[in-house]
Amino acid sequence: MRTEITSFRMDSHRTHNGRQRPDFLGWRGTSPEFGEITVAYPFMTGEYEIRATVRGEKVPTVLFDAKGFHVPGLLMPTLNRGTLRVGEREVAMARNRLGTTRQGRALHLTDGEDRYKLWAISRKRYALARKPSGERSGVTVKVKQSGVGGRRHLSGGLYLTVTVEGRAEPTDIALAVMFSGVDRSNLTRGGAIRSIFSRGANHIVHLGS
């Protein structure tokens, strides 16, 4: 258990496989306490399956998979039909799709005895909080993206700032940065509406290809 966690930065990066589309995009940075951490996406594990991953020196491996007919054309997995795993453990996820506020639309996670809540602060900022349990105090990890834009991401021009309030553990950090590789649009009402039209356009393109 840590008593104080230093804020750290994760820079955007890409790995190109020699074809027109990059093999994967993501974020890479080094935490003074937890070492190097990498978020990578999209891994197409099937025609209708997409994955994002977190790997690091001192954090557990985390996988987020999304499956369904909405997957073709996506850059990253969505909260819809998603499955989250920490190592071999599946993390239960639940949210109120009819919520009218950001807190009301928050994603609730259950990892064993740990209870988390993920919510949007803005389009480029989000937070993950672990509730106190027993003698363990709660913790909040906030992630802020420097900007938006696919071209800036491809060129390495974006970065994340990760800040921690409380005593963070490796799983807390891994889960928090995982959602930088997941489409969080549905955490807000406006984002949910935009994502419907975006997925519809992607599906039409896929059918016509």
The total of beta strands comes to: 12
The whole-number mean of residue pLDDT values reads 86
What global shape is seen? globular
Q: What's the N-to-C terminus distance? A: 51 Å
- Major sheet: arrangement of strands: 1-2-3-4-5-6-7-8-9-10-11-12
Low-confidence stretches: 200-209
Which H/E pattern describes the elements? EEEEEEEEEEEHEHH
Number of helices: 3
Task: Please outline the major beta sheet.
Answer: 12 strands, antiparallel, barrel
| DSSP helix fraction | 10-25%
Radius of gyration: 17 Å
How many structural units, i.e. domains? 1
Overall description:
There is one protein chain. The protein has 209 residues and is α+β, with helices and mostly antiparallel strands. The protein has one domain. Strands 1-2-3-4-5-6-7-8-9-10-11-12 form a twelve-stranded antiparallel beta barrel. The N and C termini lie far apart (51 Å).
Give keywords.
single chain; 209 residues; alpha+beta; 12-stranded antiparallel barrel; 3 helices; 12 strands; disordered C terminus
SSE map:
Elements: E1 8-15, E2 24-31, E3 35-46, E4 49-56, E5 62-67, E6 82-86, E7 89-95, E8 107-111, E9 114-120, E10 125-130, E11 139-145, H1 150-154, E12 159-166, H2 170-178, H3 189-208
Antiparallel strand pairs: 1-2, 1-12, 2-3, 3-4, 4-5, 5-6, 6-7, 7-8, 8-9, 9-10, 10-11, 11-12
